[in-house]
């Protein structure tokens, strides 16, 4: 499965390399791209009374000329509207020359009921907000509510960031070529794209590989080979031992959600580390989860030394007072011998945000240990205020910059969660659901990630798999979901996932 995500710039390099290596020329690729667009119109709108194809001056417009020619030859009533002439010497100029339809000036276009619009104004080359006629037409089409088939990207949308640069077409279907672009998966771009279809236009996987993209769609193929597979002779502690820190008696539920999620993810043993005041309430609610009293950093250290947990979760319901900061300092120090992954969320992130430089300096990431931070939007802003405020960076680039500066894996949560490591590898999650916007959902995610990392999955892969499983569990439960339901959905999701895996 093709997992790479290409920035518009990388896609340009892929196009050029494919053309250079052959056998397909630029115009041959464009003919395939235009044909793919026409195909989607046939499939999705077989009864369209009228098709208005809007062509810009670049190669995106070139795809439009090709699609218009094919649609007209197939008997559709097609009208062609152009915003200037195609650039001289471009493949679009060849496509326009081969198009027998009469060109009409875009400023004369008026949306008509019953029609559909093919938006081939701007694609990967869009560099600034739509202006003048293009902008007015985008507004008119939006107001008329006509179905739009966008070529490569809805015009007005940044393929790099998913931001609307200004007025933007809103597509029912977007047809892109070879690979997805970040703007197709990052919000608000994902919403502007409607249904996203990726079509092969004859660019080989080898050419894409040569570009060396470090961004991937977060699908099981990205991490399934590293997914925990316990050997037949395993025992509970060799299946991973996760420690989860509980806070005071008023907020114990969050840590229990994490603990249960770690257990349901396959960790062989999970210990809830509880302050004395919370022992009774935690005990009432726990059965298979081990409960251990932790009265300050020395007890925490003793647990780490004796039990050598392979993963820890700290933050959910932890509290933010000085005692908890001292406890956290013990938790995050690199383990000397044991391999350990520490997942930090919620209150732990609040503590860290008070002195980020100090904490980030102590986060090890050397293959044996790793720190994984799972901030939502607000937490990300407090942890990384400068990166967060930098309007020139996309969410993807922000996650990467944060991972580098914090020496950590970052799970930048949201409807388009981005997972990044300090070396620049990143994945964009594409199965998010609004069902996950519910209290306690993040605590479950931390637990799943720790559960997987605790079983020996590489930390970046564990973070990616955790984000995917979390959303999949929500989809599986459906409406009415509360965080408690997520761990109990995991067995079903895992069964489905592992059934697909090759033996
Ligand atoms: N053979 C190939 O390579 C293949 C390419 N393919 C297709 O090509 C598309 C990329 O083509 P592209 O690079 O020509 O970019 P495109 O989006 O058409 O913009 C063109 C120019 O418009 C300008 N401009 C920018 N913003 C503007 C604005 N707001 N308002 C006004 N003008 C604006 C800017 O030029 P400038 O005015 O700055 O000189 C920019 O360079 C890609 O999306 C895919 O559909 C496929 O067919 C596969 C084969
Ligand atoms: K477009």
UniProtKB/TrEMBL annotation:
GO MF, one example: ATP binding
Pfam families xrefs: Carb_kinase, YjeF_N
Protein's GO biological process: metabolite repair; nicotinamide nucleotide metabolic process
Cofactor binding notes: Binds 1 potassium ion per subunit.
Residue ranges annotated for the YjeF C-terminal domain, each copy included: 219-497
Function recorded in the entry: Catalyzes the epimerization of the S- and R-forms of NAD(P)HX, a damaged form of NAD(P)H that is a result of enzymatic or heat-dependent hydration. This is a prerequisite for the S-specific NAD(P)H-hydrate dehydratase to allow the repair of both epimers of NAD(P)HX. Catalyzes the dehydration of the S-form of NAD(P)HX at the expense of ADP, which is converted to AMP. Together with NAD(P)HX epimerase, which catalyzes the epimerization of the S- and R-forms, the enzyme allows the repair of both epimers of NAD(P)HX, a damaged form of NAD(P)H that is a result of enzymatic or heat-dependent hydration.
Protein name per UniProt: Bifunctional NAD(P)H-hydrate repair enzyme
